[in-house]
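Protein Record: Sequence and Backbone Structure Tokens
======================================================
Scope: a single protein chain, as residues and as a discrete description of its fold.
Tokens: labelled as protein backbone structure tokens, with as many entries as the chain has residues.
Position: the record begins directly beneath this header, with no further notes in between.
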Amino acid sequence: MRNYMLFISFFFVSEAVKWSGISAPPMLTGSLGAPITVRCQYDLLYKDHPKYWCEGAFYELCRIVVKTTEPRENDKASIQDDRENGVFTVTMKALQWRDGRQYWCVVSRKGRNIFAGVFLKIVEEENIITAKPEEDSKTPDGWSVLRWIMFAALLACSVTLGVYTKFPGCRSAAKANRCCLRFNT
């Protein structure tokens, strides 16, 4: 039972980690023939990790366009990593219609990489849009908060299971691998 609860706890923690640590604007509009700059904000915990910008409908199948560990510039894009501020910046050069698609800001790490999707829309207008991540992007959403609450509840049940088995009335719950809560009134 304890191994099962540790597995569930690990699942919630790994899910929370997978969706945190990097942010980028979800959608950008760029002008045909003009460059566009994208800022990908990441947690300083990842400052020494390689970063890259890739294209493709799904992150798992995306093709790397430019990477911080390889030549940082090619005919399509360039990448700069500001490790002090936790931001890497990608500049796409001379946008073409075919550049309108899904891209990904990615921080490479052991295990599962962390990533944020950016959809690039191309228009004929002459204005250049440079986007920054939203200011409140580090504010946790409801689901991530709920995961941590459920993690804490599961952890509390696994820790207290052994303690409550000493109280009358809770032994049957412990034998059934259930958590027993007692309230003194």
